[in-house]
Amino acid sequence: MPAPHWPAPTATTPVTATVTLPGSKSVTNRALLLAALADGPGVVRQALRSRDADLMVAALRALGTTLEPMRESAASVDWRVTPGPIRGGAHIDAGLAGTVMRFVPPMAALADGPVSFDGDPHARKRPMGPILDALRSLGARIDNDALPFTISGPPVGGEVTLDASGSSQFVSGLLLTAARFEKGVTIRHVGPPVPSQPHIEMTVEMLRAAGVAVDDGEPEVWRVAPGPIAARDLTVEPDLSNAAPFLAAALVTGGTVTIPAWPARTTQPGDALRGLLTAMGATVTRSSAAATPSESVSPADSKAVSPADSEPASLVASEAVSDLVVTGTGEITGIDADLHEVGELTPTIAAIAALASTPSRIRGVSHLRGHETDRLAALATEINRLGGDVEETDDGLLIRPRPLHGGTFHSYDDHRMATAGAVIGLAVPGVEVENIATTAKTLPEFVQMWAAMLGSR
Ligand SMILES: O=C(O)C1=C[C@@H](OP(=O)(O)O)[C@@H](O)[C@H](O)C1
Ligand SMILES: C=C(OP(=O)(O)O)C(=O)O
Q: Where is each Enolpyruvate transferase domain found (predicted)?
């Protein structure tokens, strides 16, 4: 029997809360994969625990990597990762995780036997063609153009041309394993612009921090020399994209939300929230003040690893962090924004825009049709179901102000749709989110954290 819909809590007063977020999905899954490919045992601290991260852990174990928890809590875990010979004969469940279905196949191609992949029903619809074709031209054999498929190798590497306009993960996936291919890999993108550039920068930075030579000097070309990937001890930053719905609550309720440990410098696209929320009427500041314990919201775990007791930070981990403080007035201004580089923020920005007093236009995100669901269609359908006025365009959404009413907000198994419903529910009584449990993809404790933010625990 399906779980009952989640009645999204309405905020009756301005929210005042400090919200501590677990680790970034994108950094966690890159760090684990690189550790599995490294030249010796390494450590990944404050790794996220979530469905996508669990799927990555299971995939790496199936391929012969040993992952042992050194310290764990409900929301995060410090992993000791010991690489092993890459084992064939494995079956990998990618779930609905882009980082598993695009990052693991290049590693699996190096296994000593065939490796099969499958995922959730919708995962079979997510674009895979360009990365599978690229792996073929580098020497792998693959029996399909999407999930499910079986891959065998080994690929020797070399030069490949692909169209990565559908997903930056095609580039990141090849880059992460490229140094382990005999000839390395040169990737040349041909086609409309590649989205999510910060995620590619994240990949390049993490590779360089592991001693891999990456030349990205020529636009849309990435060259990775063959060589070892150094084992590291790194600490994962908090997930700034998952900060989005919580920070949205400050705008929607005219309150203040503080996120501790916001990195001074990061490749996470969530950092763009500072500018986006300012444009929508928030005041955004950084402060080094410690969180007030009584107001603090963190995933329910008494043993949580706090950034303060972690080991020395790596390049990717924050060398300097501060609190990010977002304050709203309750009045929201619409926005005209190209979210091409930060597409995963779109559902939250659209939810805030649906509550604004002026129209919004979101552009540059046609690739969102290949995400967990067609996010443009899903956002338009669900906001309009609540009485909204949202129009899909070729590459985005037009969102015009209109009073909303309660009703069911479908999540389409998309964590960011579910949290978008929660944001709207803050201001609109009677919103019920279908399948709120899908937030487990990247933030299993979303419901508890949301309730705690609203002061109802
Ligand atoms: O590499 C990554 O970790 C990600 C890249 C982006 O994918 P797309 O380029 O497909 O949007 C982003 O949307 C996704 O959530 C995570
Ligand atoms: C697009 C997303 O995820 P994935 O890594 O599965 O592509 C996302 O988290 O918004």
A: 11-449
- The band of 330, judged by pLDDT with boundaries at 50, 70 and 90, is confident
Distance in Å, CA 371 to ligand 1 centroid? 9
- How far apart (Å, rounded) are the C-alpha atoms in residues 456 and 282? 24
- pTM listed for this prediction: 0.94
Q: Two tokens at 90? A: 């494995």
344 is catalytic: yes
Does residue 371 have its Cβ closer than 6 Å to ligand 2? yes
Q: CB burial class (10 A; 0-12, 13-18, 19+) of residue 68?
A: exposed
Give the tens place of pLDDT for each residue, 195-238.
999 999 999 999 999 999 999 999 999 999 999 999 999 999 99
Distance CA 364, CA 337 (A): 8
Domain that holds residue 162: 25-223
The domain tally of the chain equals 2
Q: What is the pLDDT of residues 292-310, one digit of tens each?
A: 433 445 554 322 223 233 3
37 domain residue, yes or no: yes
Q: How far is the CA of 429 from the centre of ligand 2 (A)?
A: 29
> For ligand 2, is residue 416 a contact (CB within 6 Å)?
yes
Domain boundary among 167, 196, 223: 223
